[in-house]
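Could you help me review a protein record that somebody else here produced? Here is the record exactly as it was handed to me:
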Amino acid sequence: EKDPELFEQQVQIVCNTYLEAPELYFQYNTHTVSVDEMTGIQALERNAKTICMKPGQPARIEFEYTRHGTLCLIGNWHVVLGQMIAPTIRPTRKEEDFCWHIQNTVATDPGAGWVFVVDNLNTHCSESLVRYVARLEGMDQSLGKKSKSGVLNSMASRQAFLSDRRHRIRFVYLPKHTSWLNQIEIVFGIVTRRVLR
């Protein structure tokens, strides 16, 4: 990071988000959720069943398989409950996929508050996400024009709007190159080692 002080402040915001999560959940009905995408998951089907091992003989796994394309898992790790909630599996991870995922997650407890910990991917601060949060907050939809003016002007202005602590639904953005701070990454690592391989 070019500015160590700024980096430290950004890391502290994320750490404080995790520390505040239990109180927000138990006292204020606010979920803190770590979110990210796991892309390029190959949907493979073995052409024959695995033959179980027998005494003196290892299991035999068919090497031929049929490809069914790739998928994207958008996962939510509930920081307080320590469990995956409302995952989305789709063929793509476009702006509309992520916005739909957030809407679907919020719909699991529509009256609650939500804090989403995310990285700096542009789909995590998209125009459609800003419009969705503004609508839920009961705000005027005149948010400016993307790349021109207002809240929608830039990634930075959209992130500032989406991370506003006054909103019932808000986002906390990780500093660049710190995916290790996002708890969902640990879950993805386990899924990769135990399930996908």
Remarks:
- The chain has a mean pLDDT of 86.
- Residues 127 and 152 are 6 Å apart (CA to CA).
- The first strand starts at residue 30 and ends at 46.
